[in-house]
Amino acid sequence: STKKYPRLTLHQVVAESFCGSDGSLNQDHNASADISTKSLVLRSQNELMYLGDGEVDKAMYGEPLINILYIWPVQINVTKDPDSAANYKEAVAQAMNVVQSMCLCVAPPERQGPELSYPLQVPISTTLPAPVSAWQSIINQCKA
Question: Is pLDDT larger for residue 37 or for residue 80?
């Protein structure tokens, strides 16, 4: 018999946050600082990095292939999903587009300092602005 891969339906809900321009208020370079003190741009860059370097799919199934275990009620080996490559490409595209949108959001989202118009367009585009393998260049462009 053919083993069926469990189908997941993801419902993405984007909530606007405070986009501030005063980078002196963030704790982006303090590894022990609370996440609420980190800028939106750093947080979006980290999410792209977790996808781009393969951390996410290595940490979701069974005994971790890396020393991070995300909590799921059912273990799912995303590499066995026949739609995995397409889903991954879409997720990376969205993460790249978020990073590009959030480049100016250098303050933490705690409503301190000057506020900028919220730059993220919803729904988030699933069109890749660069090849998946160029994920690091998207982060680097934002840091420039």
Answer: 37
Span 60-75, pLDDT tens digits: 555 555 666 566 555 6
How far is 68 from 53, CA to CA, in rounded Å?
14
Residue 24 CB-density burial (10 A; 0-12 exposed, 13-18 middle, 19+ buried)? exposed
Q: What phi and psi, each to the nearest 5 degrees, are found at residue 108?
A: -70, 155
Q: pTM (2 decimals)? A: 0.81
* Entry field: residues in the chain: 144
Handedness of CA 120, 124, 127, 133 (dihedral sign): positive
Return d(Cα 71, Cα 107) in angstroms, integer.
Answer: 29
Quickly list DSSP for 112-127: -SPBPPP---SSPP-S
Confidence of residue 24 (pLDDT cuts 50, 70, 90): very high
Cα–Cα dist 35/108, whole Å? 9
